[in-house]
Amino acid sequence: MNTEERYIAAKEKYAELGVDTDEVLKELAKVKISMHVWQGDDIQGFLNDGELTGGISVTGNHPGKATTPEELRKDLEKAYSLIPGKHKLNLHAVYLDTNEQVDLDEIEPKHFEKWVSWAKEQGLGLDFNPTFFSHPMFKDGFTLASPDKKVRDFWIEHGKRSRKIAEYFGKELGQVCVNNFWMPDGYKDNPIDRYTPRKRLMESLDEIFSQELNKEYTMEAVESKLFGIGAEAYTVGTHEFYMGYGLTRDKLICLDAGHFHPTEVVSNKLSSLSLFSKGILLHVSRPVRWDSDHVVIMDDELQEIAKELVRNDLLGKTNIGLDFFDATINRVAAWAIGTRNTLKAILKAMLEPIDYLKQVELEGDFTTRLAMTEELKDFPFADVWNYYCERQGVPVGLDWLKVAQEYENDVLLKR
Ligand code: RNT
Ligand code: ZN
User: Fold this and answer.
1) Domain locations in the chain?
2) Is the pTM value of this prediction over 0.90?
């Protein structure tokens, strides 16, 4: 049987449950994933060749890493060619593309013009992140919450400038640019004063956000974290801090799947958060024992996140971003695996007879609920996925790996 014949058989099987696979594929085509630029070069960027510092680290040295914006864009094009649908790219401030020598407190939209024209050419949207790490002004583990006003002012200026760039992206590309704020501020060991740094962070953020920007162009998100390398005992921007901050300041809350206690899951937070927040930003990641940012695989939590988004009709108010970085494998393949898995999990969630399952739950028929959700695990969702890939003109099944390997031999290994 070819891909289409398999699809037709799968379509019949899902139709028995009342699920219309053609409709599902139309819905899936509307889902945009914001693919993160930083998987392409291990969060190096082009501002300096400094070491990665500030609560994040990348391990591995697979050959062929992009070292110029041109190389990185070529790699991204290859990755997008392996992923069905039209998506977004998530940039970080250190990925500026300019010959000018500018520091983070001097960046302007013009330093990102080349990314914008490339995004237009590729039909991609853009998201953005100010970079509050890997910089000499990251002093004693602090940026916006620093006790030193000079340090705070440097980063406040950077934050303000990042907003202008995000606004420019949104205006140019005709789709909202989500600008996400994460900073690693914290102490390695137990602090005496947990309160004052948080107050400083709140005040710094308020200053950054003091100017109103057009929400059709850009929206801001704030990302919490339980701990980071070097900030194990105390991280200023915890979940509670940003729940309070985001909800009172009309910001999106960013939930990174790796930023919580090891048995705490973001999937269980989405329904609550959605009752109170205007929108959500997800950093889909995979923590292995800690915030390790492994490539996203089709594990239980990924499927649970997808089910929450689909069952609760949250796709419209959720911005789905990815956040992982593995330098031990082909970086283009890493993008392809993580992004395809995220889409595939959403498809799988869309293929459930949701109304029926909600009904049996309401009626207290927990036996049917369990029997059916278990049986659904064996349904032929991969046949639907493969057909979707074929229709979208991207490789079916494992065929994408050959393309990535050829690219590695022809391009990456020659760098
Ligand atoms: C770090 C945060 C943050 C970064 C990116 C590069 O723990 O998850 O989102 O990964 O800003
Ligand atoms: Zn993140």
Assistant:
1) 1-30+360-415, 32-350
2) yes
